[in-house]
Amino acid sequence: MSSMKSTIRGVGYVSVWVVLWGTAASLADAVLLQREVYGTGSAGQGITFVAYGIAAVVLAVRLSPRFLGQD
């Protein structure tokens, strides 16, 4: 049962980070598109999402011991 609990906790943790990444990247993307820094479907848009993804992974890994530590 403990294994199942830690699996659910891990899946939930990753899911939260995916939502945070998507939300933050989309908000930044909307601002950059509105200011015409780049266009829809451009390399700049891809770079924005990749950069936010990398930042989210780094933060998730650094904060994981706090949230996924042993019971």
What this model shows, in words?
It is a single chain. This protein has one domain. It has helices at 2-34, 43-68. It is elongated and about 50 Å long. Helices cover 83% and strands 0% of the residues. It is mostly helical and 71 residues long. It is built from two helices and no strands. The longest helix has 33 residues, at 2-34.
Features:
83% helix, 0% strand, 2 helices, mainly alpha, 71 residues
List the topology elements.
Blueprint: H1 2-34, H2 43-68
How would you sum up the global shape?
elongated
- Topology order in helix (H) and strand (E) letters: HH
Tell me the Rg in angstroms. 16 Å
Domains, number: 1
Oligomer: single chain
Helix content: over 70%
Mean of all residue-level pLDDT scores = 93
Quick recap:
The protein is mainly alpha-helical and 71 residues long. The protein has two helices and no strands. The two termini are 13 Å apart.
